[in-house]
Input
Amino acid sequence: MNFEISDIDFERHSSAKRFIKRALINPLANYLPSGFLRGLLRLGKSELALANWTDPGGWKSMIISYTGKTPQIADRLLLAGGTMHMALRNRRRLSVKILADLIGHCSGKKARLLSLGAGTGQIIIDAMVRASRPSHATMVDLNYEALDYGRKLAHQSGLGDCVQYIVGDVRNVSDMLHDPPDIVVMLGICEYLTDAQIRSIAEAVANVMPTGSSVVFNSISPSHGTDRFFRRIFGLHMNYRTPENLQELIGKGGFQDFVSIPEPLGVYHVVVGQRSGNSDNQRYMSSDSRQSRNSIVTG
Ligand SMILES: C[S@@+](CC[C@H](N)C(=O)[O-])C[C@H]1O[C@@H](n2cnc3c(N)ncnc32)[C@H](O)[C@@H]1O
Output
């Protein structure tokens, strides 16, 4: 499948800014004493830092990164110039375009999406609004507050009846596969999972997905240059993998024909794979195995 992305308005660094970041800003962020940097962020009332200290990489910090709207100067500097935040917004734009295209290509009456580690589900909602065909999404997240916030977003977008929410752990995904999804979305989640967990999730979803259905995920590279800062100051511990590493893991679960698209800062690739044709192991969940450990909240 081809994705036309030339019309996406991506964020980029000028070469001068790239040089200053490499030579000055990143080394300072990475090596100044952590107590000093934390103190500065506390003094500047950084909402981004507070969100990460409460829930590293959680849904609140994602909203701040995506919208870039915050009254605090410290946050404005981090959000406007921080490679990671710019790359996150690029990933959002790229993912929305890819997902809207995939929904448009689904052949059923309504495309069924399953978003694992959905957060507020903002990316999925944007894609559903933009797609040329109707769709239904199930959002899964450990965090009830994220889903509750997402429920309001879906209502505001006129999609209140098209979204279902599951408060649950994606590692138990086999409990959540009531309807075989056409598109499984794993954005912003693989970096918090082990290889074995990713592979086992891929196997579980592939077991119920029809041949030719899609999985969408992202890789993340440490090329943003501030991993040490994020670990020490925000408590964010991410597992970096190349698109190829992830394709291998998810491919073993039952997917193939991967298309990998980078955002221009080179931090994220968004990858799409297809459920392989060999569906010998494909089975639909028996009613017994559907007994859920998760609470389902409808729109
Ligand atoms: C970085 S955010 C990504 C949110 C959204 N997918 C996006 O790309 O905007 C990661 C989300 O995964 C959720 N999460 C992390 N581990 C999880 C798990 N084991 N099961 C379910 N959700 C999880 C967190 O609560 C958080 O909302």
Summary: The chain has two domains: 15-86, 87-298. The first strand starts at residue 111 and ends at 116. Residues 15-86 form one domain.
